[in-house]
Amino acid sequence: MGKLGKRETLWAWIFLLPNLIGFLVFVGIPIVAALALSLCRWDLMTPPKFIGFGNFLRLLQESLFRRVVWNTFIFTVGTVVPSLVAGLGLAMLLNRRFRGTHVYRACFYLPQILPMVAAGLIFQFLYMSDFGFINFVLSKLRLPQPNWLNDVSTAMLAIIIMSIWKSTGFNMVVYLAGLNGIPDTLYEAAQIDGAGAWQAFRFITLPLLSPTTFFALAISLIGSFQVFDQIYVMTRGGPADATRTLVYYIYETGFQYFRMGKAAAAAWILFLIVFVATILQFRYQGAWVHYEQV
Amino acid sequence: MSRYRNYRKGAGAFILHILLMLLAAIFVFPVFWAFVSSLKTLGEIFIYPPKIFPEDPHWENYKTVLTGSIPFPRFMLNSLIVALGRTAGVVITSALAAYAFARLRFRGREGLFLIYVGTLVIPFQVTMIPVFVIVRNLHWVDTYLALIVPGMFSAFGTFLLRQFFLTLPRDLEEAAIIDGCSFFRIFWQIILPLSKPALASLSIFTFVGTWNEFLWPLIIINETKMKTVTLGLSIFQGLYFTEWHLVMAATIIAISVPLLLYVFLQKYFVKGIALTGLKA
Q1: FRET partner for A125 with CA separation of 20 to 30 A, picked from A2, A259, B34, B208?
Q2: Taking Cα atoms as reference points, which of A130, A86, A128, A126 lies closest to residue A109?
């Protein structure tokens, strides 16, 4: 390595240092500590006691924990799929130049920028059973008016609807960027070959958007598995555990019952679920994600 | 443009606009409803069938919230300090590290970068408990430091800026190196000025993200006077849960800052997303 090379290396570490130190203290060490903690019993007061995989075994046997994982799964599927489809639909409608596209886009993206806590409160207000606006509309349409957040059978649905509203704008923006990258010539060629609008969508748009879908799906899944704020504000996991999700469980276990080891173990199970979902996506992307050779 | 030529004129365009207007109305309605409700009296909230607009707008609801027993102005100030501090920290440390990853050659660069990006798949909830313990041992509970510092070292920000730096042309830098410029001057006088859009996007993204954050302040802050807006909003709801006109006024106050940023700096919100992964 020459003199310039040595100088470069030295400078590189100087540039990295501020980030690296903080990263080590607040990300690196905590990751290792969380691993160790998940193998211990610890109430924050008395010294931690090593119990091996006890926390994990107990969690897997606990029916509440299984319920919580199931709820998280339902929430994720119920939120991610519709908000991807809706995001794609809006992007298709807006992917052209006409007056007002900017305003429409701004409207659809608006929920995304709100604090989840505020959005949760607004929807709690809309979901009120007697005086809520949603039930008012339903009564006008002569549809049943559920007791949304207080009914075991509708509480999760209510949270899901609100979360779809909140996250669709993000997917729309991602899809608009993806649509932007599809060359017009492909559609022109398809038109010459006599393809209709549906065929163009099915055989050009969807395949060429698959990397975008892959990206949006990955981000949405990771976010959805971590659902917490709206649960805390709207239902506190109730009624009767109907909306208790994994992160809500971790919060309660760690910071209400002070079972730090068990909470850390539950957090690692959350990581495993997210990780496996991501790996599976990468593993099977060959089957449906189409990367264009440019 | 040619692909949609059929839609743009006549009945097709008209139907499209109607459809979009309807959808946009649905998306905006909850915020609109919160706003009009924040100007009603409690009696008007509980009228059936509901009226959209209040008889007279009751702006004093906002005064009630801002001067009530819960120090809302203080929460706003706390959130502002925390969001600004965190944003400055993230942008500075990320830009420095991103420059090293994008431009400087050193042993272990690819490996270290991979570790950085790898930590992005680890959910915050995994590290939350150890970070809580570290912050407690530093005696930072109920301080601004606790709210600002742990979130300041962002793998996401480093990743985003590195990707952007890689797209910048190298000619200027090479000339500067030949002229004997230091790496810091190149970073400061060439790279940063060329990266303003990316830096702006990361700043806004971080600012709004911090403003909206809830779980971390919830576990690390106990004292009322140190609470952020989102926390304040949740305790406000706990105390005034039947007085929806006031809860909605508090909600509008809490969302006002991200909303104003969004109205004035809209393009950066969207650009940030485009920068993150789509090009990677």
Answers
A1: B208
A2: A86
Residue A249 forms contact with B (CB below 8 Å)? no
* B186 and B102 both lie in a single domain: yes
Structure tokens at A155: 């509480």
CA angle A277, A283, A286 (to 5 degrees): 130
Q: For an interface test with B, which of A125, A129, A182, A236 has the most B Cβ atoms less than 10 Å from its Cβ?
A: A125
Taking one residue from A and the other from B, the number of pairs with CB-CB distance under 8 angstroms is 266
Closest partner residue to B153 among A19, A34, A225, by Cβ? A19
ipTM exceeds 0.95, yes or no: no
Q: Which of B43, B64, B85 is the last residue of a domain?
A: B64
Q: What is the CA radius of gyration of chain A?
A: 24
Domain A53-288 has CATH 3.40.630.10: no
| Chain A residues within 8 A of B16 when measuring between CB atoms | 93, 98
Q: Which of B64, B90, B107 is the last residue of a domain?
A: B64
Residues B111, B247 share a domain: yes
CB atoms within 10 A of CB B197: 14
pTM of the model: 0.91
Q: Does A198 touch chain B if contact means CB atoms closer than 8 Å?
A: no
Which of A11, A174, A187 has its CB closest to that of B104? A11
Number of structural domains found in chain B: 2
* pLDDT tens digit sequence for B209-255: 999 999 999 999 999 999 999 999 999 988 888 899 999 999 999 99
Instruction: Say whether B30 and A34 touch across the interface (CB within 8 A).
Output: no
Comparing alpha-carbon positions, the chain A residue that sits nearest to B130 is A30
Among the partner-chain residues B127, B158, B214, the one whose CB lies closest to the CB of A31 is B127
CB of B19 within 8 A of CB of A100? no
Question: How far is A54 from A106, CA to CA, in rounded Å?
Answer: 50
The DSSP code sequence of B121-144 is GS-HHHHHHHHHHHHHHTT-TTSH
Does B195 lie in the same domain as B69? yes
Looking at the fold, whether B161 and B186 belong to one and the same domain comes out as: yes
- Domain map of chain A by residue range? 1-37, 53-288
Q: Which of residues 121-140 of A touch B (CB under 8 A)?
A: 121-123, 125-126, 128, 130-131, 133, 136
A130-166 pLDDT per residue, tens: 889 999 999 999 999 999 999 999 999 999 999 999 9
E-only strand ranges, chain A: 40-41, 49-50
The verdict on B85 and B6 lying in the same domain is: no
* C-beta atoms of A122 and B251 within 8 A: yes
For residue A282, the one-letter residue type is F
Residues B83 and B211 sit within 8 Å (Cβ to Cβ): yes
Domain that holds residue B34: 2-64
B277/A111 Cβ within 8 A: no
Query: Using N-to-C axis directions, what is the helix angle for B196-212 and B155-166, rounded to 10°?
Result: 160
- For residues B122 and B230, state if they share a domain: yes
- In this structure, the answer to whether residues B175 and B256 fall within a common structural domain is yes
Burial (0-12, 13-18, 19+ Cβ within 10 Å), A238: middle
Residues of B in contact with A229 (CB under 8 A): 214-215, 230
Same domain, B195 and B117: yes
